[in-house]
Give the backbone structure.
Amino acid sequence: MSLLKAEDIAVHFGGVKAVDGVSFEVEAGEVFAIIGPNGAGKSTIFNLISRIYPLTKGRIWFDGQEITGLRAHQIAPLGIARTFQNIELFDHSTVLQNLLMGRHTHRRTNFLQDILFLPKVRREEHLHRHRVEEVIEFLELEAYRNKMIAGLPYGVRKVVEIGRALALGPKLILLDEPASGLSVEESQEVAFWIEDMRREMGLTVLMVEHDMGLVTAVADRVLAVANGRPLAQGTPAEVQADPEVQAAYLGTTAEAAA
Ligand SMILES: Nc1ncnc2c1ncn2[C@@H]1O[C@H](COP(=O)(O)OP(=O)(O)OP(=O)(O)O)[C@@H](O)[C@H]1O
Ligand SMILES: [Mg+2]
């Protein structure tokens, strides 16, 4: 059984059919990419999986469980973490503090236990720190750990956001344009990390990305969408060669051109 399955999902905002009948399955251990022109509905697909938007139709399953009816706050504890297209970090907190906040969903202790600092709290705190230290090491963020987010270069902030998602210890990570705004060298680093997330952490990756170089380098399979509709699915080479996909990137659809 696949780790994530979306069946005929859609969300309409008034007359705007942001996503309009998209189906795909992501296998455990796979790197799966969603591509498409601006406004195609890619980020909206992430917002449907994250259960931020209500579904107009369709169903979603994760890890053998239907999540269609769940609320947004119930998604992260299942093991789905994400990054946002516009970096969402706490600017006036340090890298370490932001990563620790990424662990928040795993808190098992309550407020009173926290105040009394019971052994259970100490054990939990230790576990959080341990996971966060692993992430800092994995993403080579040692030099920045006590630096304020606001003062960091854009490329580093993008990496910290990936780190905050990884700190959760997810099974599936959703990356919304992890390479946007990055230099060629930084994009290549992101490609290495995505490979390592799969190999060393056993993660499954679902990513939205415009950089076809990165998609070709890391993705096993690709889904292309335009105007909320699926266009093609297959290997990066197959999808890039698809006439409808090529037409969509030229700002027209194959039907309109015919
Ligand atoms: N909450 C919302 N209310 C109304 N319209 C929305 C909402 N969210 C998204 N849309 C619309 O849905 C369409 C798809 O948007 P989306 O952000 O998913 O595109 P995208 O493929 O991620 O594009 P980009 O590559 O520019 O990030 C757009 O027309 C957008 O304006
Ligand atoms: Mg987007």
The first strand starts at residue 4 and ends at 13. Residues 13, 16, 18, 36, 38-44, 85 surround adenosine-5'-triphosphate (ligand 1) (CB under 6 Å). The CA atoms of residues 107 and 172 lie 20 Å apart. The two ends are 39 Å apart (CA to CA).
